[in-house]
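My current task is to audit a protein record that another person submitted. Please read both lines and tell me whether the tokens look consistent with the sequence. Do not assume that whoever made the record got everything right. I have pasted the whole thing underneath without changing anything:

===
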Amino acid sequence: MAAGDEEFCKDYLVIDAKKATLYDVACILICSTDSLKKREFYDEQCEDVDKSTTWNLRRRWLIFVSVVLQKFFIWMKKPLTFTGSFVETWLNLLSSNGGFFGLIINRIRGKVVKVEESSEKFVSMIGELDPRLKLDARVGKDDGRYKPSLSMMAAKLCYENEAFVKAAVQDQLKMVFIGFYEFWNDYQNQFTTHATMFQDALDPNLIVIAFRGTKPFDANDWMTDLDISWYELKHTNDCDDCIGKVHSGFMKALGLQKTKGWPKELEPPSVPNNHHPFAYYKIRENLREILGKNPNAKFIVTGHSLGGALAILFIAVLGLHEETSLLKRLEGVYTFGQPRVGDKGFGRYMMRIIEDYNVKYFRYVYSNDMVPRLPYDDKALFFKHFGMTLYFNSFYDGKVMEEEPNKNYFSLVWIIPKYVNAIWEVIRSFILPYWKGKEYKEQNLEKLFRMVGLIIPGLSAHSPKDYVDVTRIGTDLN
């Protein structure tokens, strides 16, 4: 790490999988600490020796797995992109032509309906799993379910293209579309982060900001999730007081600046018209403008999966910059299937913000969803959730808890219960419309995805479809 990088953090662990050679990967397991620190891909600083656990074999193993998986997605980036495009194109061909037999008939007649990927009719695989776009008409804006339902629908929409999102917001949700954004990642040197903003028509004083989660065929998103590097952020560059250790991949996706960290304001680009928009700074700019015009307006921030991590980090950086005027207008943060973001110190920092500004933070966890149980919460990795958990089982019964059951997912004690639950979820996919109503009928693709849970319990439970159902038919905990 360059010297300038150290100004915004006290301690750090930086692992650059792109620079790691095969020898480097092996070195993680077999080399001494001093030898490992000399490798180009690995950089660590810990002022307190007791806090450095490089010697810990379990931690070495987790770093090894992280690097190997990142290397896999680096190698698979183009094949994964091709596969995603192929799968989604075929799914759209099938849905646009009335299914397989309809496609065959239209092919014979020479009238195959094709949908461009940038079209408002093109649906991602996430959208094919759950095509619902409207809110439950039985839930009014004064209902405790309204904002969670609206938030989850916004988080689900973020997986689609701009034209689709705009049409869905205006035509299905009947709300005011503000914008759809692609944001620059300074470390990956490309646009990796997406978000959307719109204004609630039923409550014109409510602005919704939603971050996109991990797309199934986006290697960059998976690499962001798998990177277990961290920075122990200083409260300010000229102060040794820290806000805690924070997942570096999530911060980079939100707009962390190389060598500068989180400056309160960005400097103008050296080359005119060569400014890349960064998620945190652009959304904050939009909020300042919108809220400045409407003194009664408030906003909520939401996201599913990676999007949930970005949502709560957005609030963390607002606190870091002491954006009091914005934090006072924050109505709530709703995250669904959110991974762990930082350590216990970061949790304490966030709880101060939540208490000082009376922020409503709702972290939803469905059943055995594996993502909220990662990265690991143990002595090898320090990541911890904070605040209360709104946990829902596979019957959609919910309760408020300090931590979801089986907090680290890979517990041997939970292996059999997880597989039994996965079998029940497959059965439930066939009987749910008879149990809860026809609007909860699952698509064949979703039923097929449920089968994945029979192999990897908890993966299919991460589907946005379950979180949409939780906000509609789950226990009202708000």
Summary: Residues 214 and 419 are 24 Å apart (CA to CA).
